[in-house]
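for the record, two folds in this file. i put them one after another cuz i was lazy. first one right below, seq on top, structure tokens after. the second one comes after a little note so u can tell where it starts
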Amino acid sequence: MELLTERLIIRTLENIDYPNCVINNVESFANDTKGLFNWIVSQYANMDIVNDIISLGVFQRETGDYCGYVGAGKHVELHEPEIFYEILPEKRGFGYASEAAIAVTKWVFEYYKIPYLIGTVGVDNIKSQKVLERSGYQFIDYRTSLLQQPEGKHSDYKYYRFYPTV
């Protein structure tokens, strides 16, 4: 699967992409980057954002450089389909996250019959909040995660929704 935007190629990852295209923030895989990468690739067999996740690589069209990832899938706590993204620090500030989020949001509603897609962002992550807002997501409310965080704390986040236009 491949999505083309003005400046990006957003596509499924392949074995040849490892280790250059690593996603590090899934706790259940801790330091097992190869295991996580293999799990991400295995998710493409079902392409199910309602019960699983689909994570896609984000690459610059002009150079082919890996910029990060974007995807959609079941939120672990809310059990609603959610958009997610992360751009490498050196690739931030160029609008790649918004461009990728807009493309994946459009793709989701072309291929999945869901009423809305959510986005959740830490209350202190202003830049990511702006990405969702530029991508057409509406702020709904503030929430607190009930999942246990390090040191027994709970994290506060902003909850957004995107409703497709008919």
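(here's the note) second protein begins now
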Amino acid sequence: MPDRLKGLERELGLPAAPAPFPMDAKAISRRVEATLSARPKERKLYMRHKVRLAAVLTAAAVALTGTALAVAPALSEALQKALGEFAPYAQAMEGTAVDQGIQVKVVSALADGTSVRVYAELTDLTGDRLEHAVIQSMDSYLKLDITGGSEGSGWAFGSEKLGYDPETKTLLYAFDRYNGALMADGTAGTLYIDTIRGGYTDFETEEALPQNLLTNQLLKTRVLPSGETVLTPGQTPAELAGAEGVRLSSMGFAADGRLHILFRLPKGADPEKSSFLTNVYSKSWREGDGGDQTYNRDWKRVGFTENGTAYYEFSVPAGPENLDDIILTPIYGSMEYTGTRIEGDWQVPVTIRKAEERTIPLNGTIDHSTLQSMVLSPLGVTLVTTSPDFTGVGGYPLAVYLADGTVLHPQRGFTGPSGVDGPDLARWDFREPVDLDQITGVSLGYWMIPLANGGAGEGYWLSRLPE
């Protein structure tokens, strides 16, 4: 097989790159042999845009070596799916923290100077509390010690559940972050988690709330010990498709001049930790006849328990006189169940290794923004600009041109200032990795920036936006 590997390297014009994960040589040999046995056309498709040969090895490593990346093979497959073609640019990581009987272990990271995604396993060492667990961005924080940025240097944070293995009681999660300053390779930081919502569900109803239940008659109300006025339950009960056991209990106008919508929650739901929302629009606004856009300008929400049953109410300022002007929409929200929240202190140190990057000096202006530089990586594009009025360039469509004639339209990431007096950064993410040697130009709106020999040529205006 070594001769065949060298032949494939020559065919693609690439050296073999070391895989970023520890690997079982025999298992990976079988996977690589299968790839090499494919027809040349299939191999070239797999290696589109000259993604390094390590992609083959990494995919095998992620799928076959559970000890390197995940305790359970099922989660190894979930991680492989999450990384996809970006696997060659990921790094293996180590680091654990244990609290409240939950172990958090970081296993991998994918990053460049602006965008970071850390993958971590959470294992319940004492029970089975994680199958329906959710970690929201408000409960986690990836802090990186970035030099030259504002405190924390974080623009936006997010989290995503990737899989759960019931045999090992292990949950796989990804934690995302866009940086508000360009990060150096080897940047140190910490993954913080303080709350794991063990029983949590999001939902959205399939249809709008049943508007035919609304009349101009006032419904009965009661005042809670906390002082809020709510509807008496059971006045207009109805099922709600797609609402995860939530039922409509009462809906109508009350003497306080508000439209109240009272929901009955399923058994075990915690009304004080749940959150629902529906939009109540103005029909006259929808039809262009004036009027307010929405009645939600002063919405109120309250959760309470009555006779052992949990309820959640949403209300807006609308009275019977508004009956013919109201448009109800579906409801969406989240429910957390009593006794399932796990609060602790998990702090896992991380050291981030970046994918390859190239910084290209730029000049010229777009609108009020002066172009300073462009940072390219296989993961995405970041533009560095300055502007006297902080307008930035993140709102413009960006396209990337490749040597084979392909035009890519990266997904807009995030945009914002770098520190108090720093430049503005605008980020776009590639949907699949791109070989930097194949990029021949980048357009920002109608402004075209040709690239060659590691630098930018003279820019010019396009007559139309690229398709």
